[in-house]
Design goal:
This protein has 145 residues and is mainly beta. It contains three helices and eleven strands. The longest helix is centred in the C-terminal third of the chain and has 7 residues.
Length: 145
């Protein structure tokens, strides 16, 4: 199942109960709208989700990398099968994720963008300074097996 409503002038928050109401969702395309607030950690319950496109909104707060790629509180035995994660152009979206976490926990992740956010990709926890300038363009691509 796919929910594709990009460039539809949507306002408000992403509903926390979305996974309960649409559990078989495989693609969630909400990019280029006017969504605000945090990305709910409950989205990690979408066990069939492959594509999450949230770029170019007004999202804020810390992206729940831990829930997606390490431990989903509602589905503790599950690791994300998201292949595409688009977060760019949300200037108030924050977070820090180690490349090691992505390589270990995000086994299926092929592509992630975080440009023009405050999200940091790092090799070391000590480099997770979220107070710096907005990143110009961060891309992550899973190394070949």
């Amino acid at each position: 199942e796919r929910f594709w409503v990009d460039v539809n002038f949507l306002h408000g928050r992403i509903p926390r109960e979305l996974p309960d109401r649409w559990p078989r969702l495989r693609t969630l395309d909400l990019y280029s709208n006017e969504l605000t607030g945090e990305v709910p950690a409950t989205l990690c319950k979408l066990t069939q989700l492959r594509t999450l496109q949230l770029q170019d909104n007004r999202l804020s707060g810390e992206f729940p990398f831990e829930a997606f790629f390490n431990k989903c509180p509602s589905a503790p035995q599950r690791l994300s099968k998201v292949t595409t994660l688009e977060l760019a152009m949300n200037p108030n979206l924050t977070g820090c994720v180690r490349r090691e976490t992505l390589q270990a926990g995000a086994r299926y992740l092929e592509h992630m963008t975080t440009g023009y956010t405050q999200i940091r990709l790092t090799d070391n926890d000590e480099h997770c300074d979220l107070s710096g300038e907005h990143s110009e363009r961060h891309r992550y691509s899973q190394p070949p097996p």
